[in-house]
Design goal:
By secondary structure, this protein is an alpha/beta fold. It has helices at about 5-15, 25-40, 75-80, 140-145, 150, 170-180, and strands at about 70-75, 95, 110-115, 120-130, 135-140, 160, 165-170. It binds zinc ion (ZN).
């Protein structure tokens, strides 16, 4: 393993030790997240969900600049693809969103570390009801991402997922270029 990759791994392990559910978002951000989820439900194929959604540049007040970056990931509805259960090969059904940002919950979004401001990843629960026994996956879990490699491979997903954390591609490039400077 090269020194650069080793340092990158150490850094990722360090940020992975943070509790990803400590979101520290306020009521305004919670309303904003809910509004985006409602917008997705109304029109899931909108191109506005193709990439990370930046805070509004023109808002009702200057505080809108402080709203979080959001990435919504539901390939079943956004790209119209059928995603099969990795275990049973049965078509998965899209369920609830993990959109809870006001309190600690299993439905908290995951955080992707990025330059300047982190990104909240709003995933969806994908449910398999094979033989009446329901079980579920998060839409950006490793098992699901491996089930849709044709989407993963053409830059539809701008994040790199790790066991307990995630980074944007830009953050990874910055880390690698920084380690190059110091080594
Ligand atoms: Zn299954």
């Amino acid at each position: 393993m090269s020194k650069r990759v080793f340092i990158l791994c150490l850094y990722i392990l360090q940020i992975s030790s943070f509790d990803a559910v400590q979101l520290h978002v306020d009521k305004r951000a919670a309303i904003y997240v809910k509004k985006l989820v409602d917008k997705f439900k109304e029109n899931p194929v909108s191109r506005s969900f193709d990439n990370i959604i930046l805070p509004p540049r023109i808002g009702e007040s200057v505080e809108d600049f402080l709203l979080p970056k959001i990435f919504m990931w539901c390939p079943i509805y956004h790209y119209g693809v059928e995603v099969m259960c990795p275990e049973h090969g049965y078509a998965l059904r899209a369920g609830s969103f993990n959109e809870e940002v006001e309190k600690k919950s299993p439905r908290n979004p995951r955080i992707a570390y990025d330059i300047g401001q982190n990104v909240l990843i709003i995933q969806r629960h994908y449910i398999c009801c094979h033989k009446g026994m329901s079980h579920r996956y998060l839409s950006a879990s490793g098992a699901i991402m491996e089930s849709i490699p044709h989407l993963y491979g053409i830059d539809c997903f701008p994040l790199v997922m790790f066991h307990r954390s995630a980074c944007t591609g830009d953050a990874i490039i910055l880390l690698l270029s920084s380690s190059k400077i110091f080594l």
